[in-house]
Amino acid sequence: MARNVTTRHKITATVAAWIVALIIFFPILYTIITSIKTEPEAIAGFSLWPSGTFENYITVQTQRDYLKPFMNSVILSVGSTILALIIAIPSAWAMAFSPTKRTKDILMWMLSTKMMPAVAVLVPIYLLFRDFGLLDSRIGLTVMLTLINLPIVVWMLYTYFREIPGEILEAARMDGAGLWQEIVYVLTPMAVPGIASTLLLNIILAWNESFWTIRLSTTNAAPLTAFIASFSSPQGLFWAKLSAASTMAIAPILILGWFSQKQLVRGLTFGAVK
Amino acid sequence: MGSITLQKVSKVFGEAKVIPSIDLEINNGEFVVFVGPSGCGKSTLLRLIAGLEDVSGGHILIDGKDVTDAAPAERGLAMVFQSYALYPHMSVRNNIAFPLKMAKLDKAIIDKKVTDAARVLNLTDYLERRPSQLSGGQRQRVAIGRAIVREPSAFLFDEPLSNLDAALRGTMRLEISDLHHQLKTTMVYVTHDQVEAMTMADKIVVLNRGNIEQVGSPLELYKSPRNLFVAGFIGSPHMNFVNGAYAQSKSAKTAGIRPEHLNLSKDSGLWTGTVKVAEHLGADTFLHLDVDGIGPITARVGGEFGAQYGDRVYLTPDEAKLHRFDDKGIALKA
Lengths: 274, 334
Prior knowledge:
The structure holds 2 protein chains of 2 kinds. Chain A is mainly alpha-helical. Chain A has 2 domains: 55 residues, no CATH class; 165 residues, MetI-like fold. Chain A contains 12 helices and 2 strands. In chain A, strands 1-2 form a two-stranded antiparallel ribbon. Chain A is globular. The C terminus of chain A is likely disordered. By secondary structure, chain B is an alpha+beta fold. Chain B contains 9 helices and 18 strands. In chain B, helix 2 crosses helix 3 and helix 2 runs parallel beside helix 4. Chain B is globular and about 75 Å long.
């Protein structure tokens, strides 16, 4: 009897999980389906059965080269993430291991900047970029993406570092480790999973960022977000081509996310030392 | 060698004076236990000796050498933490070898010492495992292994058994005592559990609010507690304190009677009481009584003394083993 109940439970839970996952995944799935429809099919109405043409991909690739915005996306997301980590690791470290009375306030202040609508600072940022000659430059966008994701990176690292038990560091000190040995042999190995998952998440966030990348770039530095946007042109919407472009834009990050899901989850659960 | 001397050691955290001023002498080879209720400063005192906290005043000497300003590693001490504090990303072998690697010893010597320590602690089969794959007792043994390979001048234990279950705690208590007999190295052990203190210590230091209440062997503290605090803290179940007429008749403010120093009878005695709770442990029975005109009293009787809730029993204190305290709570000499 008890066994039956648990089996039924498991089936219900599995089915429910699949339904939720399908609902969440559906927009992406429909984008992929639409991308292999013809344009008349795409505007004809809801249908899950495409004719299976790859024409849109060919058109998209010949109209606008995919490689350049793809490389820009890679440079911007990876570059801004590395830059953010270089700034965030020491600061999160300091706040986690030698907090002061103001540490919590500083953290809250950093987070509060994320609550501000980005459009509120569009004009000043735009003018700054123009005056410094940073418009449509990879450096400018890298710095911008670093700045907007920095609060989240600091917060994530701070929570990971906080989970490293102080007693382990004290044990290392008792065992004769100097500051440098403590960092190399004890702290870094324990912090790496947290840093890795922060890195992955931030690459995804930077890859998907569209507000600033679209507004501060035109051609040279334009990443895949701008590439998608360029297909929603004033001449009218081409749903199938737009979907093909979107699929091409999200595919790399989807694959990265799929392969790193273990690290993403592991980073959140690591630290169970006791 | 491993003698530790504390001279007027004090510690202040912000406004709070955790340790006002402590003088203490720990001799080479002694097993010293710091015991006291939580927040009494016992762990802080241990961390001051370890060098994990800086003293606010006074001096700490190890083997006669002033180490007050020395870094933890320079003091030649090893510490076992309450949470074990093993390195989670290293195998058991590397955990034990870590202090030797830090000391830049030869690989062959490190291997030999790790193997020896693992044999002593029954860890030989677990050397390649990670701490997360071990049980609580095994983790504790790894922590001890990491401490013994360094051959420190003294071991510091910070409540090492409090994360273990009762049965394992008993076993580990014996193992640590046995280790002390084998190594003959000074051990300083912090606990809030007076059973651990009584069973393991050569010398117990009873702490209360950052002050030393009494220092002595377990039996000294049991037989002649210096004040009410020590009298109440050492011994299980706790000593009964009786005020009023009975104490006055013994020319004291408070009379202290241990539960095992009460003679119980079903026929006659000095006091009469009603059984409120009877805890039958088998060999012993603890009776929690409400004694007429005195109040709650705990008595320890043999397991054969049958008593149930509500029974009327007679009690007579053993006057030869009575403790007397003055109005300041200080013990009066017999």
